[in-house]
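U., I forgot to send this yesterday:
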Amino acid sequence: MTAELTISGRPIEAMDADEARIRRDLAACYRLVALYGWDDLVATHISARVPGEGEQFLINPFGMLFEEVTASSLVKINSEGDILAPTPHQVNAAGFTIHSAVHMAREDAGCVIHLHSRDGVAVSMLEEGLLPLNQTAMTIAPDIAFHEYEGAALDLDERERLQADLGTRNLMLLRNHGTLTLGRSVAEAFTRCYFLEMSCTMQIRAMSTGRPLHHADPEVVAKTGNALKGDSIDRFSRGLVWPALLRKLDRIDPSYAD
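Result:
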């Protein structure tokens, strides 16, 4: 089954329908990140694995604002950094290092989101990281890994250390740098990203008051941390959240799917 799509302004005969769908979901994810104000000029990156193609994934054209990204402008690369389809664009070398590391180590990483949001970076700078101070943070806190800052991610040797630090967890605070989330689908990765960014914002706002912070009962925190494990996050994100977000984008500007 195929779906017509134009890649970077150059028509191709046909494309697998699954890749066309992933391209549209990934482009939607870029637009949503921009809509929520988590983008950083032309920096940071979101990638999605190409179904059935091993370590091949799609990533943004370097130099394009997130609000400009479309399904057809995404660049297909492999874990060696080779560009696999005709395109006038290049990719961010640091983006390749981080995203290839995760896709190589985690077969379940259908999508990887790395951001430099203001509150996400702020929390990454705190020694204690994200605290389970509110319901949203409690939901994701047990699933957060940490990776120490090693400078701009241009050294491919860093991939092994990043992979080891991530392990089997699905969210990461890149120390003094930003945030990272992954999921089996774009929908799942974005839902985790939303929870992490919201949690960081709420923590920074609470801490900025200078008032004492109230900590919930540890047993309740532990119970809440199990709320979205396993298939429940998939059902919630793909079944409820993502269709609603796509409807929102279609009302605002449906050109992401072009």
